[in-house]
Amino acid sequence: MRAARGVTKGITVLAMAGLLLAACGTTGAGKPAAGDFPTQWLMYAGNPEHNAAFDVPATATKLLKGVQWKFAEANALPLAGPAADQDVLGLRAAPVKTTQFLGNSVGVTAVGGVIYAESDSNYVYAIDAITGKLIWKTPTNNAVMGNPIVAQGVVVVGAGDVGFSFAQVMKYAKHQPVLRGLGFAGIYGMDAKTGKVLWHVATVGEAMPSLAYKAGTVYEGTGDGHVYAWNIKTGAPRWKTRLGGFSSMSSGNLYKNQLLWGFTNPNFVYSIDVATGKVLWKQTVVGVANTGMGDNSPAVDSTKGIVIQDSIVDPKLVNGKPTVDSEVFAMDANAGGKILWQTRLGRGPNPPAYKAGVAMVHGGVIYVGSPATSQFFALDETTGKVLWKFEIPDHGPAGAGRGAGTFAHGTLWISQGPNVFALDPKSGTVLGHVRPGGRFGIVNPVIVGGTMYLGNSWGWIQALPLSSIYKGWQTRA
Amino acid sequence: MRAARGVTKGITVLAMAGLLLAACGTTGAGKPAAGDFPTQWLMYAGNPEHNAAFDVPATATKLLKGVQWKFAEANALPLAGPAADQDVLGLRAAPVKTTQFLGNSVGVTAVGGVIYAESDSNYVYAIDAITGKLIWKTPTNNAVMGNPIVAQGVVVVGAGDVGFSFAQVMKYAKHQPVLRGLGFAGIYGMDAKTGKVLWHVATVGEAMPSLAYKAGTVYEGTGDGHVYAWNIKTGAPRWKTRLGGFSSMSSGNLYKNQLLWGFTNPNFVYSIDVATGKVLWKQTVVGVANTGMGDNSPAVDSTKGIVIQDSIVDPKLVNGKPTVDSEVFAMDANAGGKILWQTRLGRGPNPPAYKAGVAMVHGGVIYVGSPATSQFFALDETTGKVLWKFEIPDHGPAGAGRGAGTFAHGTLWISQGPNVFALDPKSGTVLGHVRPGGRFGIVNPVIVGGTMYLGNSWGWIQALPLSSIYKGWQTRA
After folding, report:
1. CB-CB contact of B225 with B205 (8 Å)
2. ipTM of this model?
3. Do A182 and B178 touch (CB under 8 A)?
4. pTM for this one?
5. Closest residue, chain B, to A120 (C-alpha)
6. How confident is the model over B208-265, as pLDDT tens digits?
7. Most buried residue, B46, B161, B265, B307, by most Cβ within 10 Å?
């Protein structure tokens, strides 16, 4: 099930996979591998659209039928149990702390028959996608909280944490620039086959966002207000640009020669020339609050050059309690980031930690959640009009709606709170659901053929057959 | 070399040790074990005076001659190499980050022939004091940065970190109370022989300070502004008192029925009734800056009821650069914390992170350093008058002077920056010095007989014969 096969057979299978891709109507920048898997993973959620769906050829019978396993990372909590320290921290704070400091903050990476995952407990894991067995695990010097980027046989991850020192606390109070990241921070390049650390570059601020890759270069936005470019093979620096403020969980994205990255304090989405590091344009909306722009990852419709970002806005007390609204907005990357539309998703209680939803774009529709209202939405990509909304159940006071959805086989799949749902993408009607244990932070389901791969806050990586969630998926393509 | 021996023999040896104690003139609340070691460790640095010196009987020939070994903890850096990420962080920040997130922040604990140490890399270690071999290591869910407390066969440590979330950053800017501690926090009670976790209590804020023990109860000051009391055997709560603000590295101390603890925001030293948790008195001085009171551990002269604290004060820009002064002050615990005297140690550059020195009291003299000036001082306990000062060499821009000194065998021993010194306690003259590798954070030397035990920021525990530092020590007693 690994990538390497004979060239001739590889081409044949690739052609088959191409037909299947067209037939299924899914989009995946990660091309099917020699046989049955993406061969690389270039940015958060696997492609600019954040649609982590990958077709496989008909010969990949196991993946099509759906494999099932679960892998417990170091420090994993019992799947049926509560969040860590829930007795003391309560239902609002405990899931957040567990997401930030124990398990997997975001979804996994699928490349060449291997599931790669980053854990807050300072490990990168490589798991056999079919068997669920550990291939390697490599320690890091702080939490790793993103999607591993895989290209040219190198796995690249960023380490860092969400914290501030007391010196930074005092600076913020004096309206001075602040640096995010408390412990060690930096980038690791690891051998994809063995996990051996090929290179390590320290950074002054945290390197929490998933990196982005293009043409031999990896890019990262950091807690000390920079975007950096390094050679993926060696870690040698190519350029760095100082933007100020910090990026936390806003992973980079790409459109043509533009690197797109969200930063906080000030709150902007920046477009940066991939070759030179020069800022091409920046954009924001009125009323962005907290770490709005720097915490959330912009999505890109590659075919149209539309960039989608969303952020909490307009915080205010309602009946003495803090509330926020959420705003989704579309920018035209071909017109200097001109705003095409802005849509408010509605007011709700100020959610803890990560306060926005990662958008996914597919077939002219934007799918995005809001942790303030714990709802999941479909919006028309051209107008921003809300097409439907889905009330996420079981969200608790921590809220849900953070992770991107995945469109595969004519079905929308989301992992929110403790549940995984199959939704009708036209109406938001529930087609099926399971509760696989633990809870999902900012997790997008990764779907390869008929198998869904998930990481969760409790420190588990799971493979689930789509059929175990929704039996009718094969009839909808 | 362990504690358990026949009762009769134990009593005999205890008597011998008592004679030796008297002969050597050292003070140690940790009583000599059945033979040759303290049997318990009740507060930071081993006794209220912070003088971690323990005599052994003449039969403990190995300890008297001095044993030598070094033990590398998980993630230990090469002893001859630089601080972690020094290439990027520089000489001011890299040693601090290494002290806070990699190795041992403070000195070790010596009980029953075992060296216990807490590591920022989330482990508690028990090492055979004679051979340097690992007895056990037990993981924790965050950094452990204090002295393990050992009593009734239980090792008690507090876990937590120095960080603040962005929500707390924003609160501080609005002059609202803030909580310190980013990741998981809480207290572990472990079996002293096996390291097995007997109980664990989560806390909302960090539990960085070393705990204090009295009569079956352990006490901790936390990042959410409380002092807690728990049963050492079970972790069952006895009382809690809300003081507000946070305690960071101010470890608790004891005098009669008074528990003494420093807190920040507001900055006070509190005296709390050990039985009820009621605040008996609180005290501060003018101009305390940063985390002054909550970061530093008050020392107590048990014979007189004098409490010594020091803190940075009066921050101001000098030639455009931030500077601070340091103030040492004495309080009368028998008179509601009445201030007896205040002494300024002098202005210097604002040091990174831990900004004060831990005081030690012995023979009517206070020994204390100042990281602002990187000097080490002796003060008259009655008047606060400076008797001498010693210029600490090799301190670099991170400064030195944080860890307490240790008075043993008529000699003052300090571990500051990369060096260990033997000083003449009457003049501050250097009698001997070694550079054992790595660097010392807030480390006090622990001296048992003729052996010095040290932890360092690089993640090593070391045993050094006193003779390797200063050959003449045996002639001074």
Report:
1. yes
2. 0.91
3. no
4. 0.92
5. B183
6. 999 999 999 999 999 999 999 999 999 999 999 999 999 999 999 999 999 999 999 9
7. B46
